Amino acid sequence: MLERAPNAAQAALPLDEAPGDPPASAIAKAFAGDGDDTLQRYDWPAVSQQVDSQGWGLLPRLLDAAQCQQMAAIYDEAAHFRSRILMQRHAFGRGEYQYFAYPLPPLLQALRTGLYARLQPLAEQWRQQLTSAAPPWPAQHAALLAQCHAAGQQRPTPLLLRYGAHDYNCLHQDLYGELVFPLQVIVLLSQPGEDFDGGELVLTEQRPRMQSRVQVLPLQRGDAAIIAVRERPVQGTRGSFRVQHRHGVSTVLRGHRHTLGIVFHDAE
Predict the structure, then answer these.
(1) pTM (global) more than 0.85
(2) How far apart are CA 228 and CA 72, in angstroms?
């Protein structure tokens, strides 16, 4: 799910800006809760090993049905977002998405902070394998945002996506600038088979001198997928090499599909 800057040229396209106000107190109450408490129930060493070995991992039932419904329902409240993108206008696919404005809803903020803290060790492992000369990833998300803002990446990147029948999302990478944290999280807010048919989350893996491998992730409502944003290291006979990743959404055949995307770096 998440979504967007397939390449540098498309990333430079202007956004459809829609100025709005900070989230209202009603929205804050709807998402009251401690995302970090939610995250404690997962076996993070096992999750990290799964992501490291295949470029993706699952967090079943990260959000409950009520939280999914509440999050999807605010899509039509434009004041909570900084911009709205129509995918067809930019040849990204069909459908639309909106980027949240700061401050984020409390649960989303807690999840972004808590997920970052748990994914940072794997991101740091990947950095050491691929670009050891680059600065280490900071332990706290606030420090990463400070680095982003100092580099001119000051716009929040968490987003909500909405698809209808015949909509889809082309394969892409969510880059947004020079500073790219290597992992992101996609949460499905709608129930397959009830709210929509089709619309699977699709991942591709491209190894050097090999054809692309495709993976379809079996998400249910509230499940989250941790995926590689751009690349991950794989150990070969001569050391680590880079495996490229992209993700997208197959065509929705019926109904409506909502997705929450949590990108950890901010945008230019």
Answers:
(1) yes
(2) 24
